[in-house]
């Protein structure tokens, strides 16, 4: 059971709930905070116009809702129905669960003015796994309106769940004052970023380990990772990566060259940049998953008379778009050197083995086609590195003349994870094969981590005769998605 208090929520906890099987509950303090926020919002709405409560939304913000007429009674439901349209493929259960737990956490922060019964209904939706059907197109980085409006219709029993059933104990009605506060969030966009971040952190750890295997198979010069180089580096992440690599490869072999190709020599810079951007994204996400960014922002309390609202633009996910773009650029750069190491592992001049790590030099292709697979994966990652934050748009009769398109940036991360995992798996398969063909054994290396990693790598198929390599790659893909290449479980 994970308690949602609106103050802190670990990214690993979000991923655990998203994976399924873990229940959530709202902290009593969060329920009281939301109730106070509701009282504050109502008090403010009695004293002044409030967007979405006493007015329409978007270009209709100048339309005043008549509190005495029939329109206001149904406006909330009309707003949900009109905003619930999305398109494209259905998103997976993992992503939808992550969206729901993040939205629950944001509401628990107590800045929306929403009826606490609605977050309680979200708890039941998550715990019963009665998930809404959410499609990929609709958000533009200024709140995931279609996804959350559709979720509201599912809570109301108007839309079926993913399984085709309908929530039987549905919320009865939906007050106008609750519709916009529920939708005013980028929970889906943030969810995609959180899940990808967790997978990419594991992949970076494993790419570092796999790079060390390749470095050893090609007898790299570890001077590039020395403490002196680490101290002179221009970023702490680069220095830390140099230290990690130095510890892994020191004593593995005598250097074959005074200076290595860039794909070996600049590993601290390339992988350090990815590490730096992952850390920056993590820091931002930790704030966003507990941020009360609903528009308008509700603050103060009714009791002390400090209640109020602030109309704002915090829903514009500019920072998230920029962080994801920067991470994509770092990974796109890393892919070039990743691919080059795979190329060099196929070169006898760097391994002392047959071309393409083949069983003989009489025309066998060995791992030749793995290069092609890696190149295709690298092309995808680099294509995804085109900045999404440069996009813009004018909508709603000109009332909304920009968008962050963070939703586009984070949706690309899913395919980037697949691409980087494939690249890392190809390098693992090639590096392990080269070391095995060189007659290296795990026991000859003094570093226990390196020894265990090599032992794990040697669980991949050993035959070098030309054959179908799909199994090798599938097994390598499984390993690179396990923390520490799975060696920690040994």
What does this structure look like?
The strands form three sheets. The chain has a two-stranded parallel ribbon. A two-stranded antiparallel sheet has the order 3-4. It folds into two domains: 184 residues, Fumarase C, Chain B, domain 1; 298 residues, Fumarase/aspartase (Central domain) (Fumarase C, Chain A, domain 2, Up-down Bundle), CATH 1.20.200. The model has no long low-confidence stretch (mean pLDDT 94). By secondary structure, it is mainly alpha-helical. Strand 5 and strand 6 form a beta hairpin.
CATH fold category name of the largest domain:
Fumarase C, Chain A, domain 2
Helical residues, percent? 40-55%
Report the total helices: 18
Number of domains: 2
CATH homologous superfamily assignment of the largest domain: Fumarase/aspartase (Central domain)
- The class by helix and strand makeup works out as mainly alpha
CATH arch. level architecture of the largest domain: Up-down Bundle
What proportion of the residues form beta strands (DSSP E)?
under 5%
Distance between the termini: 29 Å
Number of strands: 6
Please compute the radius of gyration using only Cα atoms. 26 Å
Order of strands, main sheet, comes to: 1-2
């Amino acid at each position: 059971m994970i308690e949602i208090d609106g103050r802190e929520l670990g990214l690993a906890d979000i991923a655990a709930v998203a994976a399924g099987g873990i229940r959530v509950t709202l902290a009593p303090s969060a329920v009281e905070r939301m109730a106070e926020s509701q009282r504050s919002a109502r008090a403010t709405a009695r004293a002044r116009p409030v967007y979405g409560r006493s007015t329409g939304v978007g270009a209709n913000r100048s339309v005043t809702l008549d509190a005495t007429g029939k329109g206001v009674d149904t406006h909330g439901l009309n707003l949900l129905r009109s905003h619930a349209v999305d398109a494209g493929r259905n998103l997976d259960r993992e992503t939808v669960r992550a969206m729901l737990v993040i939205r629950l956490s944001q509401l628990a922060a107590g800045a929306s003015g929403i009826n606490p019964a609605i977050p309680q209904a979200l708890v039941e939706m998550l715990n019963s796994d009665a998930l809404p059907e959410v499609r990929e197109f609709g958000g533009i980085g200024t709140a995931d309106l279609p996804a959350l409006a559709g979720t509201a219709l599912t809570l109301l029993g108007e839309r079926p769940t993913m399984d085709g059933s309908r929530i039987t104990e549905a919320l009865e009605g939906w007050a106008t004052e609750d519709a916009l506060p529920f939708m005013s969030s980028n929970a889906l966009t943030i969810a995609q970023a959180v899940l990808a971040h967790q997978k990419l952190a594991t992949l970076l750890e494993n790419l570092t380990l796999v790079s060390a295997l390749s470095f050893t198979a090609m007898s790299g010069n570890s001077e590039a990772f020395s403490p002196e180089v680490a101290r002179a580096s221009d970023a702490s992440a680069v220095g830390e990566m140099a230290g990690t690599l130095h510890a892994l490869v020191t004593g593995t072999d005598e250097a074959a060259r005074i200076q290595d190709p860039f794909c070996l020599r600049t590993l601290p810079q390339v992988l350090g940049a990815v590490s730096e951007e992952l850390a920056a994204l993590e820091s931002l996400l930790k704030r966003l998953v507990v941020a009360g960014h609903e528009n308008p922002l509700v603050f103060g309390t009714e009791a002390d008379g400090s209640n109020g609202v602030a109309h704002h633009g915090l829903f514009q996910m500019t920072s998230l778009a920029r962080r994801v773009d920067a991470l994509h650029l770092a990974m796109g750069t890393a892919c070039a050197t990743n691919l080059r190491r795979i190329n060099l592992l196929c070169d006898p001049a760097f391994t002392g083995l047959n071309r393409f790590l083949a069983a003989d030099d009489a025309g066998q292709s060995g791992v030749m086609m793995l290069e092609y697979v890696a190149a295709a994966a690298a092309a995808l990652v680099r294509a995804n590195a085109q900045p999404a934050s440069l996009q813009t748009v004018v909508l709603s009769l000109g009332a909304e003349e920009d968008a962050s398109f963070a939703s586009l940036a984070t949706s690309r991360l899913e395919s980037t994870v697949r691409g980087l995992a494939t690249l890392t798996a190809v390098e693992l398969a090639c590096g392990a094969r080269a070391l095995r063909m060189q007659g290296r054994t795990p026991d000859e290396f003094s570093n226990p981590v390196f020894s265990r990693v090599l032992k794990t790598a040697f669980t991949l198929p050993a035959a070098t005769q030309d054959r179908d390599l799909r199994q090798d790659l599938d097994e390598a893909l499984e390993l690179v998605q396990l923390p520490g290449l799975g060696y920690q479980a040994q």
